[in-house]
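Appendix B, Record 12. Input sequence as logged:
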Amino acid sequence: MTISHFPSAPAAVMPMATPKRPSNLARFTDFIRRRHWTFYAGSAIFLVIILLLVIAPWISPYDPAKQSLRLRLNAPSAAYWLGTDHLGRDVLSRLLIGGRFTVTIAAITVILSVVIGTFIGIISGRSRGILDEVLMRIVDLLIAIPDVVIAIFLVAIFGPGYGTLIASLTIVGWTPFARLARGLTLSINSREYIRAAEVLGCTRRFIIFRHIIPNTIWPIAAVAFLRFGHKLITVGGLSFLGLGVQPPAADWALMLADAQAYAERMPVLVIAPGLAIFLAALSVTWIGHGLNLETKKTNGH
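Logged structural output:
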């Protein structure tokens, strides 16, 4: 007796599970969880400083430019929390308003330096050859020139002011970002997905914006915050020397310069702006340090 073989029923096709993309909340939570403690501490201090500077016009108890020789060098009191300076101006009001100039100039300088340096570095790393050599020799030339020398030169030609200060810090400020972006680009160029994109005929612009820039954001951001702290100190130093913000504008460094002759009688005139510059520089340096540690961890260093 023969046993008839009937075709077996087709096996049920199991639906393939598609990977679920993490939500924005999950991405934000993961971002926060992986940061170093210096990132949290620096971010907290920096956010407080920025908040105070933003609302400064509404919380300043007095006009920072109003003078009253009758009230000069008054000690801290209920009416004047940090006292008054040698012209009778409220120190707290000048401290709140003065930080707006210092932080804004440093921020504009860093943003311009990041954009210019990153663009030049990526173009250099992707082009290589003669263009790469020329751009890197320009970087080597400019990186050897101190910011103060450029500032003195420009002030002698155009006079002191905000534009001169920003220009002098940007002329050489982009060079570290160019070197970093070039090195990152050369490293990314050797990866398989870049070669695959080139084989598929993707344009240079697509490769730069789709693959290179997203993979250079965090290292460049870490260096940008570290350089931000350096720029704050440099802006303060130039203003202290009379090469930046000019009187009667309120500025942290100008407050330090004006307080030199009265430091023993009124230490708060030196301590207040000096501490403000220190905390602002420390906060952004801690943020950059925290991002830098996370970048090294991600890259397996």
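The longest helix spans residues 91-127.
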